[in-house]
């Protein structure tokens, strides 16, 4: 399994090459609160992982997507603060995660 930041750098590099970009100045990542990706670890490692790439010395911005789940008994989507947490309305554990499990490259600023 590939580390999430390495996959993000591959996406950034491929997008930059495909568009004839010489340098990436900034990257915006969207990280789900339920994704098991630690934003501070991403910040810490970004400079090392991007060294020598088109994103070398690029600024990293991270936006956190909150967790949400569809509750079967309630029939509505409710906030989900953590995986394994109950529905905040009825206390049920019959939940299907609807948002917050992914990480994606949201935007790239290029030179």
Can you characterise this structure?
By secondary structure, the protein is of the alpha+beta class. It has a domain at 4-66 and 100-110: hypothetical protein PF0899 fold (2-Layer Sandwich), CATH 3.30.2320.50. 24% of the residues lie in helices and 33% in strands. The protein contains two helices and six strands, in the order H-E-H-E-E-E-E-E. The strands form two sheets. Strands 2-1-6 form a three-stranded mixed beta sheet, with helices on one face. It has a three-stranded antiparallel beta sheet with strand order 4-3-5, with no helix packed on it. Strand 3 (68-71) and strand 4 form a beta hairpin. The chain is elongated, with a radius of gyration of 17 Å. The model has no long low-confidence stretch (mean pLDDT 92).
């Amino acid at each position: 399994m590939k580390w999430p930041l390495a996959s993000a750098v591959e996406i950034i590099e491929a997008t930059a090459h495909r568009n004839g970009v010489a340098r990436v100045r900034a990257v915006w990542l969207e990280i789900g609160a339920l994704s098991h990706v630690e934003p501070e670890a991403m910040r810490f490692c970004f400079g090392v992982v991007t060294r020598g790439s088109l994103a070398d010395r690029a600024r990293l911005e991270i936006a956190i997507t909150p967790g949400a789940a569809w509750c079967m008994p309630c029939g509505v989507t409710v906030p989900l603060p953590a995986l394994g947490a109950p529905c905040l309305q009825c206390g049920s554990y019959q939940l299907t995660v609807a948002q917050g499990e992914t990480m994606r490259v949201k935007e790239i600023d290029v030179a």
